[in-house]
Amino acid sequence: ISPLAAIDCENVVIGDRVTIEPFVVIKGRVIIGNDVTIRSGAVIGCKGFSFSKDAQGQNVSVEDTARIIIEDHVEIFEQVAISTGIFPWEETRIGENTKVDAQCHIGHGAHIGRNCLLAEGSRCCGVGDHVWVGVGAIVSNRVRVGDGARVSLGSVVTKEVPAGQTVSGNFAIDHQKFLSNLKKSLEE
Questions:
Q1: What is the pTM of this model?
Q2: Which of 73, 108, 111, 130 is catalytic?
Q3: Is 130 one of the catalytic residues?
């Protein structure tokens, strides 16, 4: 653990053989499994974008109370942000052997499955096991990407992606349909 990392003194559990590089920030209510690597500049436990309205209609920040669980053999690259959920039962979870590339954001309460690859700049709120999320792709809040599915680069996913399906585009549709539509538009 780098002496240049900032780790809360309370409510943080760190497993065995964990590497935490300089300038990592780990806030409270985080559990990190074994054989995890967290690269420079990552922030684990970011405040979720959670607000309510007061009696005058003004935005009021809501306290986050959930925890973050990072399972074994996860690798988190530079400048990744992982947000904390609002409610205690709304934990954010990164599954075993998942790799999260630089500048990704994992939303509050998101569940990322096992053996997933999240490419640079992707924004995710929930994916199954063995999922590929391409560079710059966005998976909307409360949308699930099924096991073994693929989200192509730059896609914007606004509805569930069934297991094994590949989607492309903004708004994301089946990849083959996307290619067919693209071919038709180029012919016109």
A1: 0.88
A2: 108
A3: no
